[in-house]
Amino acid sequence: LVFMLAVALAYGRDAMSPPEALRAQVLLWQALQDNFMLDASVWPVKTFDVLRLFDMSPATLSFPLLEASPHSGVTLLVPRCPQELADVILKRFPGIRVIAGTHGEVEGADESWTYFDEAWNLPTGAVLNRMLAGVDTPMVLVVIGSALPQGTDDIEKLIRILQSRRVAVAAGPIVTESKVYADFCYRLRLRHYHLGFDSVYHHSLIFDENSAASIRGSWFKEEDAGDKDGPCKLCETLPPTFLARTDALRGIGFHPLLDGEWALLDLAVRARRAPLVEVHRPGEEDLANSYVGPPGLRHTSVNFALCPHVVSHEVSGLGAPHLYGRKDIPPTGVAPAEPWFAEEAAALGPVLGGNADARHLRPSQQATVFMEANNLKDFTGPDGVMRHFGCTLAKTNCPVPNWVYRGWAVPPCCKETMRHLLFYIDEVFREVGVRYIITDGVLLGSYKYGSMLDWDADVDLHIHDDDFHRLEEEVQYRVQQDGHFLRKHANNNSWLLQANEHNYLLIELNKRSEHWDPDRVWYLPVQGRLFPAMEDAHVNISTWYGMSFFRHRLRHVPEWEEEHRPMFCATPYHYNCVDETQVPGGNDCQREGIC
Questions:
Q1: Is residue 15 within 8 Å of 7, Cβ to Cβ?
Q2: Within 13 Å, how many C-alpha atoms sit on residue 213's CB side?
Q3: Which residues contact 452 (CB under 8 A, 6 or more apart)?
Q4: Bridging pattern class, strands 169-171 and 241-245
Q5: 3-state SS class at 19
Q6: Which strand (E) or helix (H) includes residue 235?
Q7: pLDDT digits (tens, 9 = 90+) for 199-231
């Protein structure tokens, strides 16, 4: 998919319309996140080449001038619209075009309304994608839930923001039915399969420079503050009611299997990763031909503006809990976001709950789909509650090739399984008197950090020759009794310890040719516990990994190979050893401050 999209953009872009080119580049970037094209010695087209293609391509979002009013340039998209919500829309926004998911025709609506059936049985993402296909206005006001602006004046304020700034979305905070203020504005913390939310924003928009530059004191009063366009925060997430450029929303798209605020958060995550806009305006200079910076950094992600002078209120009787709207834990001790991870869709209210009998719309199922779609294992909400979605000792492990051959870090759940098995077999060996030492990656990790490496796929132990036979005679039965699984490798020189028969995260128990004296071992730290290693183990590490084994790298490639076939180990915005920039082969990404 990466290869085909890259070829299409490289040779057929001129035949594409701007929306088609935008969608193709978004799809290419999304496919790049899951690619295996890291190693230049294997792949004829690699990540580096695709990133250069992006650098040579024009910006996917050019922010054309918007000359429109609420009635001529905006369509309301309401994926689930009960009659109670429709009544408020008719009252506040008469004559504005509406595409609504309903149970039938809305009482009191005119020809400006278009109806979408089956909205309560389909995920919100699928419904919104279909609705967007029928939009012919440059902007859409999306309402996921029941929060609405107060009238067309509020929409006009949001339009002015999209007209004057290079942002894809403008929105205001939401005041819930229980009068809780929530602005939904965060930076997303994406690192090593973990998603977190940071409320500290980096940039803001200011529309009254004279006011902004003035010295203030208690004696000062801003005149007509309520009539002015107030400041906005630039965010990576957005509230469930927002005004967006139609082309940007079509280009990014919604995940067709995700519902409600899970679909909204997924949109934000993919927008965070998709380089849609120029880092700097090119002006008169031909930036495409002159750009010489690190590959993949000519473009950056799009911004969402959160503006407190446009407040949306939930319609009475239709309020609902929000997935990432609140940072507090109420006195009850139950996180407000808890219904989004539970079984009952009805707990999300009459709008967001959809069809309570549809299994695929259950919040717990939706949470799993979201995490798997974005290669995430841990979710820490704004309320500080961490929820785990990875494998366990009792389950099948995460697919090893999906991370080890892409150069991604070990999923935290897999690393915990290997840590548990290492501690377990150490206790068994101590108890029964089997002598062993740690070797290979876990030994290297001990020298580097005192822990397992972030990208090591297994743990290797070297069993003393005189004790190796005891694995078959004694240890395998003990392991079975303790509920784990030990199997003999086809080479007859290794046994593989697994958490269970279907979990292929391994502790390799090997018989090797290197001689070591069990009376002359050292003890090295790994994950807070001491493990035996051969005397002068750094000599063996140097033999296995070269004299540069302290250099921070994705994985070891001999210097003489990397000199001719450099490995660019970073796919920007993903989970491998470098997140934000490219680090050419051989460079120390830890010293660069980015890994």
A1: no
A2: 4
A3: 410, 415, 418, 419, 441, 442, 445, 459, 526, 527
A4: antiparallel
A5: helix
A6: strand 232-235
A7: 999 999 988 766 555 455 555 566 666 667 779
